[in-house]
Amino acid sequence: MRKAGILLGAAILALALMEGLLRWMEAPALDYYRKVKLLHIYNPDYFVALPANEDLYIRHHDGPWAARFTTNSLGMRGSPEPDPSAPKILCLGDSLVMGFGVSDDQTFCSRLGRESQDGAFDQKYQFMNIGVDAFGSMGSALRMEDMVPRLKNVSAVLFVISPNDFTMPPELAERGMEPDDVIDARRMNDEAYKLSFHIQFELTRYSYALQAAKLAYENLLIKRSITEESVKSEINEAGLSGKDAPNLAKTSQYLVGSFTGPVRDRCQLSKSKEKPLIQCPQPIPQGVQCMDGPPPADSLEPLPEFTQKAYTRMIAYAKANGFRLIPVILPMQVEEIFCHNQGKYHPLGNYALRASKYFEDRGVSVMQLQDDLDQMCTPRHGIRDFFIPKDGHLTDIGNQWATQSIAKRLPAFMKGNR
Secondary structure of the chain in the HEC alphabet? Predict the structure, then answer.
């Protein structure tokens, strides 16, 4: 018993020392994840929400963005205090809607609010951002049911559908990453999992050491998956797998290639070059496989049952409470965009076909922004400039594009002409 007490005391002391050391070090990566954690609070119904009256400046540890995040008294990012007499349009969705990577006034929801105040629509709407990162379909449905009763005069909800809600690109799925709806289904149907999530959420919110341990564990899982895929790829490239293994010709080529590398012109490396003008439409990058056209929507797998349940719930709630539900397809995967701008189609767009069919079959018109994708190419800006590198969220000009595309279509939806 005495030994157990000593071990427990030593563990507590070690944790306290680690906590103090991490707080003193202020490591950029840990500071970033700490502030992101502080930007959130636990919600018993949909797990993650934003705190009220928050004001945080967050800088990404790798440097691609830095932004100020503020919330109003209802925990809505970059939104005004609600005016009971003003008609309102709510922006609903995950981190893309919330606006990760840009400051409050740069999100497309904030920009739509300014457009409205400048007379872009038939009346001046208050645009309120109720998006929260990490939401899946059911999280969005529950968030809508939570926020609409707190506001008066809600005219419409713009629900931006994310591909990560119910599907995951193969390369991410291979790393063990799951769609948000799969994760939410587990949380909502497993009380033990729900309790575990709540405990770790609160502990890592207040403890640097536990947050660091959680991040380390998650990174190890991802790195293990990446390493496994990399080893498989190398074995295949070396001709040591497959029906014809060992393939001596392939193995010899692999060995020779291991001792050689690209020849670099050192003189050219020292010269500064002006960024060349961009050719529009941009050529499809190597490795991106396009199709001639989209498959028939009826030929695709139906939405998962959990996702269907969330969408049905949203449709019924909007009808019962007298506001318009406007699902929005905002393409956010660059492969889709490269293919589309060359008159082709990428299978990553199948999520949009599946979700659109579900809503349209139930009489809910979907706002499609694909026709404006050609505007994601100018002499100075290419498709990738509209998204944060290795992140996927919209940059400042990406949010400008979304604002213009939505603003152009919104009046017809508000009048019921769609």
Answer: CHHHHHHHHHHHHHHHHHHHHHHHHCCHHHHHHHHHHHCCEEECCCEEECCCCCEEEEECCCCCCEEEEEECCCCCECCCCCCCCCCEEEEECCHHHHCCCCCHHHCHHHHHHHHHHCCCCCCCCEEEECCCCCCCHHHHHHHHHHHHHHCCCEEEEEEECCHHHCCCCHHHHCCCCCCHHHHHHHHHHCHHHHHHHHHHHHHHHHCHHHHHHHHHHHHHHHHHHHHHHHHHHHHHHCCCCCCCCCCHHHHHHHHHHHCCCCCCCHHHHCCCCCCCCCCCCCCCCCCCCCECCCCCHHHCCCCCHHHHHHHHHHHHHHHHHCCEEEEEECCCCHHHHHHHCCCCECHHHHHHHHHHHHHHCCCCCCEECHHHHHHCCCCCCCHHHHECCCCCCECHHHHHHHHHHHHHHHHHHHCCCC
Residue 281: asked if its preceding bond is cis (omega within 30°), the reply is yes
Q: Cα–Cα distance between 97 and 90 in angstroms, integer?
A: 10
Longest pairwise C-alpha distance within the chain? 77
pLDDT at position 19 is 53
pLDDT tens by residue, 217-258: 555 544 455 455 555 555 666 555 665 666 666 656 655 555
pLDDT recorded at residue 63: 81
Across the range 55-82, mean pLDDT stands at 93
pLDDT tens digits for 161-215? Answer: 999 999 987 777 777 788 999 999 998 888 898 898 898 888 887 775 555 555 5
Q: What is the mean pLDDT of the chain?
A: 85
Q: Rounded CA gap, 279 and 152, in Å?
A: 48
Q: Are 18 and 34 in contact (CB under 8 A)?
A: no
pTM: 0.83
Q: What is the pLDDT of residues 371-414, one digit of tens each?
A: 999 999 999 999 999 999 878 899 999 999 999 999 999 999 99
What residues have CB less than 8 Å from 321, skipping those under 6 apart? 148, 154
